[in-house]
Amino acid sequence: MPDMISNTSCMIILDNINRLDILQKLYQTIHLTEEVAQEFGKPLANWMTVNVVEDKNYLRLLNASVDLGEASTIALAVQMPGDHVMILDDLKARKLAKQLDLKYTGLLGILLKAKQQNVIASVSDILAQFRQVNFRFSEKLEAEVLKLAGEL
């Protein structure tokens, strides 16, 4: 299983609906950067590992294109050896990751995997909770995710 590197938005949204456990149940350990941990702003669970981005110049270069949390997540992915996947929802960050040939998924992809592995019973129920905490996604994307989850 690849190492998972999370950006801040995924953590905040799951925390807002009291479902950070989804990440732990799916991946056991989540890697964060110091910048992401600071943006998250809450005490971290013991299954969250904070990593230091070593190349601060590269981090600044990336930060010129995307927010600091996304920049540090991408910089860590470049720095880390082995197989890893980033959790990114920001479109600019995803485009940058694609240009760098890095693997990523988003929060909705995580929900699909959680349903497939019986971590959650319903993607639809979690999406409804996401809407309550102002996580925005199109109706088209919602229909696509629900179809893939077998709920439409």
How many strands in all? 5
Q: How confident overall, as mean pLDDT?
A: 95
What is the CATH class designation?
Alpha Beta
Amino- and carboxy-terminal Cα gap: 29 Å
CATH architecture: 3-Layer(aba) Sandwich
Strands in their spatial order, largest beta sheet = 3-2-1-4-5
Tally of domains: 1
Oligomer: single chain
What's the Cα radius of gyration?
15 Å
Shape: globular
Structural category: alpha/beta
Report the sheet-strand fraction: 5-15%
Taking pLDDT < 50 over at least 5 consecutive residues as the criterion, the unreliable ranges are: none
DSSP helical segment count: 9
Q: CATH-wise, what's the superfamily? A: 5'-nuclease
Main sheet, how many strands, which sense, barrel? Answer: 5 strands, parallel
Task: Estimate the helix proportion, in percent.
Answer: 40-55%
InterPro entries: PIN-like_prokaryotic
Pfam family, one: DUF3368
Protein name: DUF3368 domain-containing protein
